[in-house]
């Protein structure tokens, strides 16, 4: 036998033996496709649309199944019932963060997004409280979003109703809101520091969406030994915590313990209060990475949703007309929209929900992990096993949302035209790891879109029926195709 062939056969046998031992000693994992040695089920997945592959597997193996991404088993939850049973009914057990090796090279298990245990609980609790306006100074977060909405309108006026690609302007606005929350100041859209910051953020997110990053996450040994875009990702993403470190130094010099101005101040005050606690999680390192997490989670997701939302409104002018009629009736022309308006604008509220449901921004969410051995639907999932939830399977459930592939605000309206809530609406995931910035993002979407539609008519460059709304599908998030439009002042 050829030595190479012999080696391959030996490795395969060894791998299958290890797999069998894992399954027999570590619990009874759900069924799933047979993995290949070393690479697992990678070749059976469409890395450009993993969600679609999971949908196919669920038809064969049911709503809970196991796939091997490399040599590690990952349990996939498909459909509302399985997702709810795990993430809500067994919330604590399913509240771990699964491994994400490329990003872990940057924040070393600190911050909110990739942390676990005590670090995660304390950073999350603190961030939630601070984002809910406790101790954020005299200006509420809603004030900050409204101010940015006005600046956004001014920037859009500068396009002089000529064709423009809205990507850049819609990226600036949510980023500025986070800047205002974290260190009190917003930037002009032409500020060079701000532009560099946005460039790093956008570049990083683009790389994160590539199939190569998924390969690196499943074979972490490649990260340290091979060149590739993952190196650029790590470099770009390190720029943000370093930028925040500089801001923290400035804050330390001008801190008034009785008058916090922003997130950094609140954190520094908390650090001072806990300075005698040896085990405190409130450290400069954790501040740096928690603030970075708020940026990376709160900027790109909101701007992509806004951009996709405008594209859907161009495609469906009849929907846009009804939203504008409701804005005219409830808000009028002469004051800024505010969050209190939302309860009197059921159609607009339904449109905001339908945009998020339809675009299915993060189809498989970030990986979770079980925090202990868990008995789940007659299976035994060992502690530390990665869990992936298919949010697509919930947001596009055809029993809850008839014709889920079509954009229809009626999915969130009852027969009388009142807004209708749905338990299946979970674009931010659900359970204990639901996105920390969920409330902020919903506020931004409502205030930004209503302010734009209060001030402009949206004019497409092609006939609405020819507008392509199919996402440029990618690994991590659904991104709309590039497009241009004209903002015609009203």
TrEMBL record:
<keyword id="KW-0408">Iron</keyword>
<dbReference type="GO" id="GO:0006805">
    <property type="term" value="P:xenobiotic metabolic process"/>
</dbReference>
<dbReference type="InterPro" id="IPR002401">
    <property type="entry name" value="Cyt_P450_E_grp-I"/>
</dbReference>
<dbReference type="InterPro" id="IPR036396">
    <property type="entry name" value="Cyt_P450_sf"/>
</dbReference>
<keyword id="KW-0492">Microsome</keyword>
<keyword id="KW-0349">Heme</keyword>
<dbReference type="InterPro" id="IPR017972">
    <property type="entry name" value="Cyt_P450_CS"/>
</dbReference>
<protein>
    <recommendedName>
        <fullName>unspecific monooxygenase</fullName>
        <ecNumber>1.14.14.1</ecNumber>
    </recommendedName>
</protein>
<comment type="similarity">
    <text>Belongs to the cytochrome P450 family.</text>
</comment>
<keyword id="KW-0560">Oxidoreductase</keyword>
<dbReference type="Pfam" id="PF00067">
    <property type="entry name" value="p450"/>
</dbReference>
<dbReference type="GO" id="GO:0020037">
    <property type="term" value="F:heme binding"/>
</dbReference>
<dbReference type="InterPro" id="IPR050182">
    <property type="entry name" value="Cytochrome_P450_fam2"/>
</dbReference>
<dbReference type="InterPro" id="IPR001128">
    <property type="entry name" value="Cyt_P450"/>
</dbReference>
<dbReference type="GO" id="GO:0016712">
    <property type="term" value="F:oxidoreductase activity, acting on paired donors, with incorporation or reduction of molecular oxygen, reduced flavin or flavoprotein as one donor, and incorporation of one atom of oxygen"/>
</dbReference>
<dbReference type="GO" id="GO:0006082">
    <property type="term" value="P:organic acid metabolic process"/>
</dbReference>
<feature type="binding site" description="axial binding residue">
    <location>
        <position position="435"/>
    </location>
    <ligand>
        <name>heme</name>
    </ligand>
</feature>
<keyword id="KW-0479">Metal-binding</keyword>
<feature type="signal peptide">
    <location>
        <begin position="1"/>
        <end position="27"/>
    </location>
</feature>
<keyword id="KW-0256">Endoplasmic reticulum</keyword>
<keyword id="KW-0472">Membrane</keyword>
<keyword id="KW-0503">Monooxygenase</keyword>
<keyword id="KW-0732">Signal</keyword>
<dbReference type="GO" id="GO:0005506">
    <property type="term" value="F:iron ion binding"/>
</dbReference>
<dbReference type="GO" id="GO:0005789">
    <property type="term" value="C:endoplasmic reticulum membrane"/>
</dbReference>
